[in-house]
Amino acid sequence: DAGWDVEISSIHPTLPEDVLLAAVSDVDAAIAHNADQWTAKVIQAAPNLKVIARTGVGFENVDINAARRHGVVVATTPGSNSEAVADLTFAMMLALSRKLLANDALLKQGIWDPILGNDLHFKTVGILGLGRVGRAVARRATAFRMDVLGHDPFVHPQEVIEAKVRAVAPDELYRASDFVTLHLPSTPETTGMINAHALGLMKTSAFILNTARGSLIDEDALGEALRSGRIAGAGLDVFSTEPASSSPLARLPNVLASPHVAGNTEETMQLTGAMAVDNALAVIDGSWPDEVVVNDVYSAP
Fold first, then answer.
1. Three-state SS across 122-173?
2. CA atoms within a 13 Å half-sphere pointing along the CA-CB vector of 300
3. In what order do the strands lie in the sheet with 73-75?
4. From 102's CA, which of 21, 59, 75, 122 has a CA 20 to 30 Å away?
5. What is the pLDDT of residue 290?
6. Strand partners, 127
7. Which residues, including other chains, have CB under 8 Å from residue 206's CB and lie 6 or more apart?
8. 260 catalytic residue (yes or no)
9. Mutual angle of helices 82-97 and 132-143, in 10-degree steps
């Protein structure tokens, strides 16, 4: 409708560097999947490029510094899928606590031998990261009459209070929680933060959930904790290497695994795609909301 010529890749995402290099020479704007490899070499090969509009909130596969040097805006779609991610997080909590998959598997084999699960209500959930997704999880947990702990030094204390979350240090959160759920970006500080130390503080009856980024967890340490019974189980939507079809973690009986779909529903895919297109159109027009830009390239006042 805006009069643009639209080129759609014939290759399913994720798009590697060589595919993008062959396609970007005359591109003004790109709608980018979360793992497409927007390296410095790709950005340099696109002299007309003004915006990389991400369909999601992550941008670790875009060379932010190279984009800034070339004046290319990198925009994300904050809030577009936060409720969907919170939904899947809570679905995993319910499925793990009530042993839904184990009971389903037995019944499909013709075996009527119920495995007892545990209540979710009145349990304690610890939320690492209290941005949009973390606070959405807190709302669901409050409705289930759970005790909600949280840690996020970058969120204003008033927002934590309004979310009905009790702020605690990470070690206290690990010790006290029946469920530890991760909602943090991938940064040098957060990489591998769920390690042997953190897992060693958790209850043996506790579960860990990750619907954020695979790099947050030391997967070797988690595998050992799961196999030894150091913790009860895990719900994993993300892995350090994806696709994770051959991941040993995904094969463990006390792991509920899904293929990085927490933020992807039919409704959120429509919304996220529309927001990414709106961001690209706004950049080309010369004005866009600063809150969607992640690499400090802004429109003129």
1. CCEEEEECCCHHHHHHHHHHHHCCCEEEEECCCCCHHHHHHCCCEECCHHHH
2. 3
3. 29-32, 51-54, 73-75
4. 122
5. 81
6. 150, 181
7. 177, 178, 179, 180, 231, 232
8. yes
9. 40
| Structure-token pair, residue 284 | 């080309």
Per-residue model confidence as pLDDT tens digits over 211-242: 999 999 999 999 999 999 999 999 999 999 98
CA distance 263 to 267: 10
> Is residue 162 among the annotated active site residues?
no
Taking the CB of residue 151, how many other CB atoms lie within 10 A of it? 22
For residue 36, what are its two tokens?
A: 């497409």
User: b vs e for 176-200, b when ≥16 Cβ sit within 10 Å of the residue's Cβ?
Assistant: bbbbbbbbbbbeeebebbbeeebbe
Sheet holding 124-128, edge to edge: 166-167, 147-151, 124-128, 179-182, 207-210, 233-236, 255-257
Confidence bin at 11 (pLDDT 50/70/90): confident
d(CA 276, CA 8): 15
CB atoms within 10 A of CB 277: 19
How far is the CA of 30 from the CAs of 20, 40, 270, 280, in angstroms?
A: 10, 15, 17, 8
CB atoms within 10 A of CB 262: 25
| Residue of 54, 151, 213, 219 marked active site | 213
In terms of Cα–Cα distance, which of 20, 136, 128 is closest to 83?
136
Alpha helix positions (H), 5-81: 17-21, 40-44, 64-69
Known catalytic residue at 7: no
Question: What single letter denotes the amino acid at residue 242?
Answer: E
* Amino acid at position 67, single letter: A
Asked if the model's pLDDT at residue 34 lies above 80, the reply is no
- Token pair, residue 45, equals 């090969």
* Residue among 98, 242, 251, 267 flagged as catalytic: 242
